[in-house]
Amino acid sequence: MAITTSVVLYDLMDTSPEVRTLAGFLAGFSGRTREAYTLDLRQFYRWCDEHRLDLLRVTRIHIELYARELEELGRAPATIGRRLSTLAGFYRYAAEEGVIEHSPAVHVRRPRLDYESHAVGLDRNELGAFLVAAGLSSPQDHSPVLPSRAEWPADL
Predict the structure, then answer these.
(1) Which of 24, 32, 99, 118 has the smallest C-beta neighbourhood within 10 Å, fewest atoms?
(2) For the chain, what is the radius of gyration of the CA atoms?
(3) Does 115 map to a domain?
(4) Is the pTM above the cut of 0.85?
């Protein structure tokens, strides 16, 4: 069974402002972006429900407390940053649509991210040294070493 993040509203007038705003925000995205935003918003909505908060009446303090709770749960700074970015986009949309007066997420502090790549590979200095060494060598240094004819497989 496939899980969908499609947005379906049956009767726009019978739907709460929270649901209409969530649906309107998510309707602007598709694919994996919508899936990620849906997950982020669903988790924040659940957090608000646990703390008896109305999604459209939260303040900056509430969002800051949510972020601190994510830190305490051991979430990675990049995950927390993405979730806060989703909330900032959602509340910006709600403010632009006139659902709320102003976004409570505007000045929420986001975690500092380590932009140093942890990928395995050459860093900038290593690559430079590699290219210098290649430029100083002769073409014979770059030729492949092939096995002798005696070492070739029999079926060739």
Answers:
(1) 118
(2) 26
(3) no
(4) no
| 26 lies in some domain | yes
User: Which DSSP state fits 4?
Assistant: -
Record the tokens describing residue 141, joined without a space.
Answer: 């240094």
Q: 56-77 pLDDT, tens per residue?
A: 999 999 999 999 999 999 999 8
Ramachandran angles phi, psi of 24, nearest 5°: -65, -45
Residue 151 lies in a domain: no
Classify residue 117: in a domain, yes or no. no
Q: How far apart are CA 6 and CA 29, in angstroms?
A: 10
How many independent structural domains does the chain possess? 1
| Owning domain of residue 25 | 12-96
Note whether 124 and 141 are within 8 A (CB): no
Q: Encode pLDDT of 127-144 as tens digits.
A: 888 788 777 777 666 666
